[in-house]
Amino acid sequence: MAQKPIDFNLDELLILAENGQRNVQYAVGFYYENGVKNPVDLEKAAQWYKKAAEQGHEEAQLHLGLFYAQGKGVEKDYQKAVSWLRRAANQGNANAQYNMGRCYEEGLGVKKDESKAFSWFLKAAKQKEYRAVCCVGLYYMSGICVEKDEKKAFSYFEQAAKAEIPVAQYNLAIMYQYGSGVEKDRVKGRMWMAKAAQHGFPLAVEMMKHDIETQPE
Questions:
Q1: Which residues contact 210 (CB under 8 A, 6 or more apart)?
Q2: Partner of 45 for a Cys bridge, out of 10, 13, 32, 72, CB 3.0 to 4.6 A?
Q3: pLDDT in tens, 52-87
Q4: 25, 67, 197 from 134: Cα distances, Å
Q5: 10 Å Cβ neighbour count for 129?
Q6: What is the residue extent of each domain of the chain?
Q7: How many CB atoms lie under 10 A from the CB of residue 118?
Q8: Residue 101 neighbours by CB under 8 Å, 6+ apart
Q9: Which CATH class, in words, describes the domain spanning 1-98?
Q10: How far apart are the first and last CA of the chain?
């Protein structure tokens, strides 16, 4: 979970940050990124995150990695993104572990490697990073890097779905509708499909729209 900066104004924080306190440097970056008590300035946010990140602040490392991945306040650079995300991930930051999985899955800044992607997703999932939980479910569902196991896939999707992850809700709905990894239950399938649609998940929205249009008058 992201750390919450101390409630000071920016001038007060800057005095402390200039003295090299990494928690305060992170807080300054947070203020600049989110426009807390001052206008948003992503370049300054990146600069302060870097100062804290270089001192080992894991949340700053995470933010800086995401900045490089997205080109926020810095020039987009996936290799630098991976470098900072890896440092945070190795400190046990679940969000960074999830993003490391994404990098390996998509070949961003590293050579594509689904086995390493799965390993990072699993680490994050064990810390209840529910986006990663859903990803682990997808690997078990498809049988990539692991033996295909629809029951395990269902279990992971169910955890993520209950944590309001739309794609997991959609996948859970499909599994209920077809009886994959669980006893077929169209009522539960429709319930989870509706939840995914409420979150705006495109496939679920289309599915619900189709069901409504094809219902007899």
A1: none
A2: 32
A3: 999 999 999 999 999 999 999 999 999 999 999 999
A4: 34, 24, 17
A5: 23
A6: 1-98
A7: 22
A8: 117, 118, 119, 120, 121, 124, 132, 135
A9: mainly alpha
A10: 49
